[in-house]
Amino acid sequence: MTDQSETVVVRRPGQDGPVDEGLAALLADYHLQTQAEKGEAVTDVNGLPDRYRAEVLGPRAAFVDDVVLVAVSGETAVGCLVVTAPVAGRSEVKRLWTDPAFRGRGIASDLVGAALAHARESGVSTVRLSVWKWRSGAIALYERLGFTVAESWDEREQLVCMERALGADAAA
Q: For residue 111, what is the DSSP state?
């Protein structure tokens, strides 16, 4: 069993190989679980909506303008998160996922912390995200990390929109 001190967060894996393959697997798990939770379960990646399938099959192309953070334990990708390119001083956190076998080790917190640091370094003033209302554990994590519920910018029902300011007084 690997402890948390052996898990590191890397930005955009620099080469093809185990980490990129691991990222694709994490994205597949994320999307398959989300579809099941929405009551639209599919048996494999081929059944995902086109845009989600594209992320799994080609994460580099799907997130070409974004920063992808991957938590790695040894050579195994165990968590991921995407930070969108800034638009009007805002970035969005998407696709936060930790392999269930590695949960409870602070990996999600580390990924969000790295995302906030990256956004701050990029001059972003606000980071926002949306999360399905039934993901109470994720909502609690985001609240612990300083995110608050915001007016919705997404038309999909059951999404909770949250944001966090990154001014000098909001340092992590």
A: H
